[in-house]
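User: Continuing from earlier, I have the next pair ready.

Assistant: Great, send them over.

User: Here they are, in order.

Assistant: Folding the first of the pair now:
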Amino acid sequence: MLPLSSCLHSCICFYAVLLLVALLILYPRFVKMRRYRNQAAEADIPPGSCGLPLIGETIQFMAAMNNGRGFYDFVRARRLRYGNCFKTNILGLPQVFVSSTESARKILNNESGKFTKRYIKSIAELVGDQSLLCASHGHHKLIRGCLSYLFSTSSVSVFIKQFDELVVKSLGSWQDGDKIVVLHQATEITFKAMCRMLMSLENEPELQMLQEDITHVCEAMLAFPIRLPWTRFYKGLKARKRIMSSLDLIMTERRRCSHGNQKDFMQCLLVEDEKAGSDETYRMTDTEIKDNILTMIIAGQDTTASAITWMVKYLGENQDVLDTLRAEQLHRAEKMSPGQFLTLEDLAEMPYASKVVKESLRMASVVPWFPRLALQDCEIEGFKIKKGWNVNVDATSIHLDPNQYNEPNKFNPSRFNVSPTIFQIRFHFFSFVFPSCCK
């Protein structure tokens, strides 16, 4: 008869072996079942790759910016691989890109209240969290109301004259040079125009210092957010501090001297600020004023300069369009006095020029996509989008969609001869038809 301890030991060994055999049999089935469940769960979300842990596909995104084709090449390659709705991960944040007109309408109109604006955190650090780009939906409406003066008829009329004056002056200086870099010249013109309109800044040394800092901020917006002294992001943050200090000095001087003769955007906001408490109208804080002046300089300078550059390129490649445009401009010039600058009314008499601008923006898509944040779980293109995911409307793809435009890669301003309401219904063209959605 075996001792009790020996029997117990044998029993334990038996059950251990039995358990091991069971695990060997059941484990592959468990793994297969779990894989099936994961695949079933992921089948409902957009296709794509989330890349490496923590950083996602950030390295590929940054590499695309330096490959000569630009960062949109990152989006284009994945759209061709996965379709009109795909997911990726940039800087550790889930990103979904959508390129169908119907989904774009739903997202940008936001009738269901499921989306809000969303920009990368590093951009908010550079332009300021009180900027229109980064403000919450409710705060955005308040700030936009304060900025409405900038887009009033009187303000736009003054700006058109100032801009035309700067262009004419620059064209005169080009006669002495043998090579013109259009992007550089356009950037300088638009920068000076924005500074003059926003805060009447025309002092050349001050403009030069400010433009250098603005350039650092713009470069940092497309850089990896690493705070080391030699990085573009760090230099951009330092440049932002200098810009804020400069704006502080200008605002302090305006208040101290009561420069009522300055009829610019900053003065308008400061005058409104002095009325604080007299009614229930929202007044912008100094931080909001500074953040949004910086934002408007960057937006007005970069996007406008890029649009001008692309337009020059397209006109150079399409002689027939250039001839038609020149004829319209010469006809208008015959009706103007020598030394007279353009007015808002003059622009209304240039229908073909307007079509050239629209077609240039359609083909170039200066703003390639519009970012939004999903406020709740929702569905797009039959795929599930989780709360907190970033959803980007791919404007470039929509503007070049052959299902929406005949010969989309052909520069043809005459395609805008049709009634604008057709574009409004189809939700094709973001830059002109839906400005309130795209801000």
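And the other member of the pair:
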Amino acid sequence: MEPSSAPILVEGRALTLNDVLARQGDQTNRRTFQLGSEVREGLAATPPSEISFSTKIPPSAEARFSLGIVGRDWTRSTNEITFSIYLRDNENMQLAFQQTIGAATTEPQWTSAVLPLDQYAGQLVDFVLETTLAAHRQPNPPSPFDGVPVWADLQIGTRRDRQNPPKKFNVLWITIDTLRADHLGCYGYHRPTTPAIDRLAARGILFTNFFSASPWTRPSVSAMLLSRYPHDACSQRNCTGGDFVVDSKWLTLPGVLQKEGYRTAAFVNNVQLGADYGLNHGFDRFLQVDSDDTLLDSLHAWLTEPAIDQMCSSRSLSPPSSVMACFSSRSEQSSAVSLP
């Protein structure tokens, strides 16, 4: 359990798994993984495995991360896998987190966790992320049915930054495939086909002189994400048809926003814009869904996460006498619920 000799120090943002791998010069095990409909960038950690690094802990800090097992045959694998995190300061090693995912799991999904780091504020701490076959039972030999354990979404940062972020504009980017400008009211179409878009255009900036980088979906969207021509963005020598895959070496628009402290997520129901084509780079969350309703439900759940986290982290020691909340659509009447 020996970490890298030099600590990883970042300023003004959270430390991420990318920082760890960049320091170690190892990007070979980092790739895109999918569980259910959700795609995340993570690090494969076939047991027994160990990832170690050191960093200085800021005040009011926490570590956030996700874990999961990808490609597991849940009907045939009987091995259980344990994820552990050890912390060491001044030569004292402590088991800070441990969770076992076993054969009883009914549905493959990402498991998110938060590890408070208040006691280490201002200290240089060694982190060791470890995966092993569960020790509480006699494991079978590793098999291809076990799948691949994955650490994903690692962030070590200050809770205060999350609870009181600097005042910045939220960014909502909506793309609609094969939408023709000559059938939009804001561009002069005589029928009222797009009243909501027309109202948005009237309140904001409407571009009247623009060109698409490509005549089809995937390279056009990649050009907007990367600000590069399709032949530069593509990782393949042959960048036509299904061979068009975005090269992961380029910085994307969501990647820029990440560096500025934004949470980034994509909700996609277009088969041309999936993670298999590299369009997930820079997104904290990337969900590939099959219907508009699922897309909107997933978006709403993601948008409410920070509010729930803040309520949990700032709760008083004694429970309040009542809690009032209202979540309703425009078509529903507002309601309030009081809990003892």
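Worth noting for the second one:
Helices lie at 17-24, 159-163, 195-203, 217-226, 230-233, 253-259, 292-313. Residues 8 and 55 are 5 Å apart (CA to CA).
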